[in-house]
Write a structure and sequence with these properties.
- Pfam families: Zn_ribbon_15.
- This is Zinc-ribbon 15 domain-containing protein.
- It comes from Streptomyces caelestis.
- The protein has one domain.
- The protein contains one helix and four strands; from the N terminus they run ββββα.
- It has 95 residues and is mainly beta.
- It is 15% helix and 52% strand.
- β2 and β3 form a beta hairpin.
- It has a four-stranded antiparallel β-sheet, with helices on one face.
- Bound molecules: zinc ion (ZN).
Length: 95
């Protein structure tokens, strides 16, 4: 008998201050990564899907972001520190 299924993992990658699209407040947003893994006999083997989302801590609105966006947000959270709801479209480090 083979027992298999999936298991979800939730990782909090960063906390960012963003202007919420839902409530319009410059509130803290959590950047989350949700990984669903295929399990065999309750042992997680490989990820089936990876999804990213930001969630407003003020109103709880969740917004899906792509992996690329999530990476940018994470870089912003780690390196930036200057942006308070700043949404710069400039990407000088990209060739
Ligand atoms: Zn909000």
């Amino acid at each position: 008998m083979i027992i298999f299924g999936t298991k979800g993992y939730l990782h909090q990658l960063a906390i960012l201050t963003l202007v919420c699209a839902q409530c319009g407040n410059p509130a803290a947003h959590t950047l989350r990564k949700r990984v669903t893994k295929f399990t065999l006999f309750f042992v997680p083997l490989f990820p089936v899907s990876t999804k990213y989302a930001t969630q407003c801590t003020f109103c709880g609105a969740e917004q899906k972001v792509t992996g690329e966006q999530a990476e940018q947000l994470q870089a912003q959270a780690l390196g930036g520190g200057q942006g308070y709801g700043q949404q710069s479209q400039q990407q000088p480090y990209r060739s």
